């Protein structure tokens, strides 16, 4: 199996294992990328498309990501 990814902004690049064989990456874009290595799939979430109490402006970019395995919580910081 071979994987290749382009990194947008290396200042904001983050990668976390969020499950068995599931890698989350972010690189200063509006995207969260999930790499399902076991099934050779990937998924993308655009943070401006997520509905919630605090809508994210379309110009914001992901600058920080944290994952809490115990609570199953993903926190995203934006600029």
What does this structure look like?
By secondary structure, this protein is mostly beta strands. It is built from no helices and 6 strands. It has strands at 13-19, 22-27, 31-36, 41-46, 62-68, 73-78. A hairpin with a 3-residue loop joins strand 2 (22-27) and strand 3.
- The residue fraction in helices comes out at under 10%
Question: How many E-type strands?
Answer: 6
The largest pleated sheet is described as: 4 strands, antiparallel
Given helix and strand content, the structural type is: mainly beta
Give me the side-by-side strand order of the main sheet.
1-2-3-4
Order of helices and strands: EEEEEE
Reconstruct the topology from this structure.
Blueprint lengths: L12 E7 L2 E6 L3 E6 L4 E6 L15 E7 L4 E6 L1
Annotation keywords:
globular; 79 residues; two-stranded antiparallel sheet; mainly beta; single chain
In short:
By secondary structure, the chain is an all-beta fold. It contains no helices and six strands.
């Amino acid at each position: 199996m071979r994987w290749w990814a382009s990194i947008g902004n290396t200042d904001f690049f983050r990668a976390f294992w969020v499950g068995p064989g599931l890698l989350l990456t972010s690189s200063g874009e509006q995207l969260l990328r999930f790499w399902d290595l076991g099934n050779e799939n990937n998924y993308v979430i655009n943070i401006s498309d997520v509905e919630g109490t605090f809508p994210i402006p379309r110009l914001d970019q992901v600058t920080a990501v944290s994952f809490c395995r115990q609570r199953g919580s993903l926190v995203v910081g934006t600029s």
